[in-house]
Amino acid sequence: MSETEVKTKTCLEASRACLQSCEDLAGIFRALGHPARLAIIKQLAVRNEACCGEIVDHLPLAQSTVSQHLQVLKDVGLLTCDTRGRNCHYILNWDKLAQAERCSQDFWTCLNAVQSDQAPATKDPASSAGE
């Protein structure tokens, strides 16, 4: 087995250990892939917790739209819900966010390690257009 194959295998095993599958990381990327959801995450980071109405007050979105975005974030585990009477207070799951950050870093580290072991980089076609 070549050094590149060993590094690739090690990276793949580390990825599995981190989130159990690439689907988990992709799910988190999908959940974070909408500007409204990123804004919700930022709001909750500042406030520690908030109900849907409080989040709506800080975003130019309808309550139903914010509710849908909150559900997406909750489904992937980035938020938890503390039910108080008829209200659900949303709280960031900092452990899941930290896990997602670590796995994302592992993913990019793995790709960069494999790329650096490959043949020398070819010239960028755009940079050689003037030659």
End-to-end Cα distance, whole Å, is 40 Å
Beta-strand segment tally = 3
Mean model confidence by pLDDT: 82
What are the segments in which pLDDT stays under 50 over at least 5 consecutive residues? Answer: none
Structure description:
This protein is mainly alpha-helical and 131 residues long. Helices cover 63% and strands 11% of the residues. It has helices spanning 3-19, 22-32, 35-47, 52-56, 63-75, 94-117; strands at 49-51, 79-84, 87-92. A hairpin with a 2-residue loop joins β2 and β3 (87-92).
How is the secondary structure organized here?
Elements: H1 3-19, H2 22-32, H3 35-47, E1 49-51, H4 52-56, H5 63-75, E2 79-84, E3 87-92, H6 94-117
Antiparallel strand pairs: 1-3, 2-3
Helix pairs in contact: 1-6
